């Protein structure tokens, strides 16, 4: 049985609970994880790169000099791609790079990463995260108390503006709603922190 300790705000073990049996025992599927990460990166691309071809470059189409008698290589319009400032051949144009992968594949990738974090001891289940006021220093102190010195992803079952705004000035900490959980953010942060009461929501999300 997969068990994990529940910690209070003072980093003391309160109790031990079963940790998402279906998720923690999931075998890591690197192929699906890779697909999910590439999909996430592709969907975040702006796709605004744009170049001008020879029909769009703003130059005259007048022949640069006569065809024969100069001793130079023949030349036509200054728009020619072989000339400096000329059009670009097969250059990028604005496009949409986004695509979708099956929901089952996305969920399997997330389960794979969470199961690996569980095996590595990189998941912290806490009783509550109650800061009281928007204060980055207080959140940093709490994380230090949990022994989190590296990057951390905090999963929330419901919106918490105090926590979200307190984490904005911590470049290595990200607060994410469970509904938006994704493979990329899980891999991009070493520690995963979640409240005990939100575990059921996470299990439901991951099928």
From TrEMBL:
GO terms for cellular component: ribonucleoprotein complex; ribosome. Keywords: Ribonucleoprotein, Ribosomal protein, RNA-binding, rRNA-binding. InterPro entries: Ribosomal_uL4, Ribosomal_uL4-like, Ribosomal_uL4_dom_sf. SUPFAM superfamilies: Ribosomal protein L4 (SSF52166). GO terms for biological process: translation. NCBIfam families: rplD_bact. PANTHER family: 50S RIBOSOMAL PROTEIN L4, LARGE RIBOSOMAL SUBUNIT PROTEIN UL4M. Belongs to the universal ribosomal protein uL4 family. One of the primary rRNA binding proteins, this protein initially binds near the 5'-end of the 23S rRNA. It is important during the early stages of 50S assembly. It makes multiple contacts with different domains of the 23S rRNA in the assembled 50S subunit and ribosome. Part of the 50S ribosomal subunit. This is Large ribosomal subunit protein uL4.
């Amino acid at each position: 049985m997969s068990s994990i300790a529940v910690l209070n705000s003072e980093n003391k073990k309160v109790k031990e609970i079963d940790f998402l049996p279906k998720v923690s025992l999931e075998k890591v599927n690197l192929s699906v994880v890779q697909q999910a990460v590439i999909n996430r990166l592709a969907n975040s691309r702006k796709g605004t790169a744009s170049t001008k071809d020879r029909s769009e470059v703003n130059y005259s189409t007048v022949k640069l000099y006569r065809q024969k008698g100069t001793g130079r290589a023949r030349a036509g319009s200054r728009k020619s791609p072989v000339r400096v400032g000329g059009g670009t051949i097969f250059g990028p144009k604005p496009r949409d790079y986004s695509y979708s992968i099956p929901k089952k594949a996305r969920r399997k990738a997330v389960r794979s990463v969470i199961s690996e974090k569980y095996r590595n001891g990189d998941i912290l289940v806490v009783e509550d995260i109650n800061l009281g006021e928007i204060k980055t220093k207080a959140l940093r102190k709490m994380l230090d108390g949990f022994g989190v010195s590296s990057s951390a992803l905090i999963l929330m079952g419901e919106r918490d503006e105090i926590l979200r705004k307190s984490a904005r000035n911590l470049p290595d900490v990200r607060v994410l709603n469970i509904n938006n959980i994704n493979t990329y953010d899980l891999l991009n942060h070493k520690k995963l922190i979640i409240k005990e009461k939100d575990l059921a929501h996470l299990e439901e999300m991951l099928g």
